Amino acid sequence: MNDKIIWIKADEGSWDERKAVVTTGMESGVDAILVDAADVEKVKELGNVKVAAFATNQIEGADIIVVGKGGEGDGTKPLPPDYGGSLDVTTALRLKERGLKVAGYVVIQNKDYENFAAEMGNVCDYLITIGTDWQVIPLENLIAGLQKKDVRLMSGVKTSEEAKLAFETMEHGTDGVLLDTKDLSQIKKTAEIVENAGIQTLPIQTAVVTRVESIGMGDRVCVDTCNLMVRGEGMLVGSQANGMFLVHSESEESPYVASRPFRVNAGAVHAYIKVGEKTRYLSELKAGDEVTIVDGEGKQRTGVVGRVKIERRPLILVEADLNGKIIKNILQNAETIKLVTKDKEPIAVTDLKVGDEILVHSEDIGRHFGMKIEETIIEK
Questions:
Q1: DSSP 198-266
Q2: How many CB atoms neighbour CB 297 within 10 A?
Q3: pTM for this prediction
Q4: Which of 46, 57, 161, 164 has the fewest CB atoms within 10 Å distance of its CB?
Q5: Are 269 and 338 within one domain?
Q6: In percent, how much of the chain has pLDDT > 70?
């Protein structure tokens, strides 16, 4: 799943201005709000969100303490010749010793500040870098230098376009962005970019249906999400982890029932569903879990389970040939349950015939507790 993060900086202007930024950030699903220490409780009263605060003598209540503003990080105090003797580094270490989450805040004014940022990255949980005249090269250097460190690198940005650039730098990009703006529309646009950043397109292949057979009664799982899906979207489900069928959402109108664009009638309780880089059993999903929504192009986005319905229904077995490998899925036998053809059109399982071509996803790798492993596993 997407692990990119977005923080909103809301420490300037009147409280009404700051409050508008904070509430818009919360509505947009940001991961944290960065404020002055005096505003921590005010923000927590507005909603359940992580609050980061610039370090002062009063830091109670903040989830993350940000070190560097008004110090060496932003140039208020001169950099020492020995970064290890830095007051900001010392402060960060002391806060960490108290069990607190700490972020370093560094304005990259020149190469010395880039080096200082790397030193802060060695001791902090998060590193926030603010660019001045030059942004991409320092980011590239820090991404490369800190990639094996236990720190999340964040780039200070003022627009959604700058956020997109930060996420695309050196392919991997930064782990997150700190958005500094009073333009509420930019908060929403940046949140949309963050939602899709770093998510790879899955390889989707075509398999040929070799068998369609009613197999009697069994328990099947409906996954009702907190998200609306559109034509072409669904979830990857299969009886084998290395061969998963694109099961279409119930976003299509039919003569039988009204559309339910939040739902995927996904299959039998034993089946695997692809969730990010892992698989899970359909039967273990519950409200609040994340799921992966996929379309016929392999584009992914994250959904949230609102409800799971397990009910006894008539079932149908679908087998397909994928480059000589037989893969299988068991679904409810009903007109509203659909797969996706090679032309990216939904097709009801009741209309499937031998020879039809449908969209699937395959990985030539085993799974252990849902995780990829290099192991030979035979599933029939």
A1: TPPPPP-EEEEEEEEEEEEEEEEEEEEESS---TTEEEEEEEETTEEEEEEPB-S--SSS--BTTEEEE
A2: 12
A3: 0.74
A4: 57
A5: yes
A6: 91
